[in-house]
Design brief:
The chain contains 11 helices and 9 strands. With 284 residues, it is α/β, with parallel strands linked by helices. It folds into 2 domains: 174 residues, Rossmann fold, CATH 3.40.50.620; 90 residues, Pantoate-beta-alanine ligase, C-terminal domain (Pantoate--beta-alanine Ligase, Chain: A,domain 2). The strands form 2 sheets. It has a 6-stranded parallel sheet with strand order 1-4-3-2-5-6, with helices on both faces. The chain has a 3-stranded antiparallel sheet with strand order 7-8-9. It is found in: Cytoplasm.
Amino acid sequence: MSKLEIFKTKAALKAFLKPLKASAKKIALVPTMGALHNGHISLIKLAQQNADIIICSIFVNPTQFTDPKDLEKYPRPIEHDLAMLADAGCNAVFMPNVEEMYPTGADEAWHIDLGHAEFLLEGAFRKGHYQGVTQIVKKLFDAVEPDVAMFGQKDFQQVLMIKNMLAYFKLPITIITCPIIREEDGLAMSSRNIHLSQSERAHSLVLSKSLQFVMDHFDDYSLAELVDRAKAFYENIDGVELDYFTIANGDTLEPAKSKDENNLVALIAAKVGSTRLIDNMIIK
């Protein structure tokens, strides 16, 4: 197992990467906010198939939290995370503090055109969220200058926004989307799952069950009927509040108009207790 290098400044990271780039090593970046689980490790493993050197970043980005309480309670088990990365054979971790990424006195004004999809689904519930996401991802891309970057499919809309940001800046980085990793009972792995009580954990399975229903019965009902039947899963479940369930065009996130569209995805967000969970399944 190679030693996991730890960097806290962009300068130290760039010094580490410089000779590797000079020898034409392919660099992959796996951006995370820590609280790592097997979903993150699947990103590392896929990165290893696509690059020579794997850099994981751990940074809880304040600009993408629309609720300060959410930022405050975001889990930060750093020793656990470093052990997982070392075991997975990650080469280096970049763990800057807030000052390193957002220096005092720097002009941090940021607003780019991410397209209409920014304001749909998560964008409607968490206004400004994707401006914060794309701002920090651009900063990480500038620090690492990777050849490829890995993102999880669970944040389907986020991947779309990052691709739009890449196009906006014309960055020569390949985005690889990694499939959702699920617990044995179907719950999508998430750093937020640790906040679920035992009963909430049981109730949270409704997300994957409603999505699986749409997958299994896609040919049996119209799009409108599929959405109605999926939403019916959420009736009479204590402590579960549905934010949205949609079958959307995967390129625009607008509600799908026809089953014949060649990129369809079912997406959901729900509050289980005080924990907000998202999930999706790609239909085709």
